[in-house]
């Protein structure tokens, strides 16, 4: 490359490493860059981050829960927004539950920031990440972790909304679907708790209804509906609501007369059902706001950890409740 | 760390770098590792890959298309399978369309293998990746790229299946929904072409029907249904099929009498619709098979690029067609 650019090897190294200690003229710099391009030279991010002490990499462990359309869109917006701020987002995949071992594996890539969706990272993991050079650790889940910024996603609020709505509609014997699929507990447990809290001290009862996402399971539940004596159900989300509504319909249970149904997520499919599905609209933080928060935290790594509540929940009342 | 382990700094470095040139006793090795653990030492993947010349990182650019449930499950299975083979999967996000510039950015992370979903990577990008140390480049899309292994996903077959099925059911004026959403062209274009190929030389006509994923757009299309004079529609996938079926139903168009409908993807929701939705079941390669192919390619980087057709398509006939 030095020969092609007509300069010394040291000059090539100074230019490509962007060394500021040595003054190099603009034309020389340009000749080196042109030669590098012609030869297909690619800088080594690893070497660069070793020199700089940090990278522009924002590491996100891939979620351990099945990603629905709402959350998928949120992740995608976030990646675009961080990309605009010149960060490279990498999703670190394949690991099991998060923990301190996982944090060590993430730390090996020396990310400048780590954004952890869901639960499981402990204070020890945060320390490992910070000691290895992460300037910001941000969790995105049900509770805050010592030493990390926290964006609290309070899924109790989703259940609370749904429970209050059904109560206000005059329902008193309220079922709550609890998906049996792995990885959804961190959403379903607080949603159930939220319904219980909303109805605490009233004359209403709350019944947990475990359900796998299968037609046969839904049919079995619908067959027991009358003996359960329920008059309403919070169906966890819109997809489970669709599954249950079909089974109740096939069983001759009228919606909303015999059973009021409310979902969550406000997906398109709820508007396509008949009766139209009532739902809890969930407001996630915008990708742009979150990207700015990460950037801010990276620029000021000494700042005290902040906690923000970021999940909004409001009922969209349609015909099924 | 040397002090804690009671050894020289050179010994610490030999042990942590796993240097084979110097013989170090097992107890000493153990003391160093224990001290490292106690001090929260995390090896630097960057430094390690600089020494080793390559990493265990499989890089996948994040897909540029909206990921549906079928593809999402496939990605997740693949990550787990590669994790079992001791690879770290990172999804590189945020970039726009793939191209040689994108390949340079990926190359900076010095992945040992790169797995590219969708189209856009060119032979130049493959060269950049290989020159920077990637032992295997595998594309997962509509066509093969010079120098890379190719897993061909032939979405024409999906359309071909659907078209033949509707023809066999006696339909002759066949509409094909074409989503207007960005990023879906690489699926919708070959699916439409597949229908045309299936019906080429017959007395059937094929009409492309652009449609956005919105209730109002579907209602407008349904309102024109009778003047279009169609008797069947391949609805791109099950979600679009649900949208269109609802609009046709509201317009009084009977399914399948006035319009046979077939979707694709074989999602649960199709079984929940009434009439039950006919669909094209799409068979993607198993995550395990694909992980093994990647591993094989990494171990034998000199092997000639291989091409495999990996997408299977079969009709699941239900009540809507």
From TrEMBL, chains A, B:
SMART domains in the record:
HTH_LACI
Cited Pfam families: LacI, Peripla_BP_3
Q: Which domain of life is it from?
A: Bacteria
Which GO MF terms are attached to this record?
Answer: DNA-binding transcription factor activity; transcription cis-regulatory region binding
Does the keyword section mention Amino-acid biosynthesis? no
**Domain HTH lacI-type per the UniProt entry, residue ranges:** 1-52
The UniProt keyword set, sorted, is:
DNA-binding, Transcription, Transcription regulation
What SUPFAM superfamilies does this protein's entry cite?
Answer: lambda repressor-like DNA-binding domains, Periplasmic binding protein-like I
Coiled-coil residues: none
CDD domains reported for this sequence = HTH_LacI
Keyword Acetylation on this protein? no
Q: Which InterPro entries match?
A: HTH_LacI, LacI/GalR-like_sensor, Lambda_DNA-bd_dom_sf, Peripla_BP_I
Name it. LacI family transcriptional regulator
Q: Which organism is it from?
A: Streptomyces dysideae
């Amino acid at each position: 490359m030095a020969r092609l650019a007509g300069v010394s090897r040291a000059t090539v190294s100074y230019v490509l490493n962007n060394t500021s200690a040595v003054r190099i003229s603009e034309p020389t710099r340009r000749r080196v860059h042109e030669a590098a391009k012609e030869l297909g030279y690619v800088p080594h991010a690893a070497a660069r981050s070793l020199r700089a002490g940090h990278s522009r990499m924002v590491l996100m462990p891939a979620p351990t829960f099945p990603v629905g359309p709402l959350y998928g869109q949120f992740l995608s917006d976030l990646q675009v927004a961080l990309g605009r701020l010149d960060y490279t987002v990498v999703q670190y995949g394949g690991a099991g539950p998060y923990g301190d071992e996982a944090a060590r594996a993430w730390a090996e890539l020396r990310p400048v920031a780590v954004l952890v969706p869901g639960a499981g990272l402990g204070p020890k993991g945060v320390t490992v990440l910070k000691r290895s050079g992460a300037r910001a650790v941000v969790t995105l889940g049900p509770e805050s972790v010592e030493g990390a910024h926290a964006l609290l996603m309070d899924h109790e609020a989703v259940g609370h909304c749904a429970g209050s709505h059904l109560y206000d509609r005059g329902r008193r014997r309220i079922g709550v679907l609890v998906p049996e699929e792995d990885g959804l507990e961190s959403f379903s447990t607080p949603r159930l708790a939220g319904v219980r809290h909303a109805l605490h001290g009233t004359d209403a009862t709350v019944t947990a209804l475990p359900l796998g996402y299968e037609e046969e399971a839904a049919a079995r539940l619908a067959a027991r509906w009358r003996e359960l004596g329920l008059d309403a159900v919070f169906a966890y989300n819109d997809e489970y609501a669709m599954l249950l509504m079909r089974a109740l319909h096939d069983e001759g249970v009228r919606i909303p007369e015999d059973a009021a149904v409310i979902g969550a997520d406000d997906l398109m499919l709820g508007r396509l059902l008949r009766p139209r599905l009532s739902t809890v609209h969930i407001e996630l933080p915008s990708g742009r706001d979150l990207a700015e928060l990460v950037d801010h935290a990276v620029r000021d790594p000494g700042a005290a950890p902040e906690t923000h509540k970021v999940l909004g929940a409001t009922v969209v009342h349609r015909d099924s409740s």
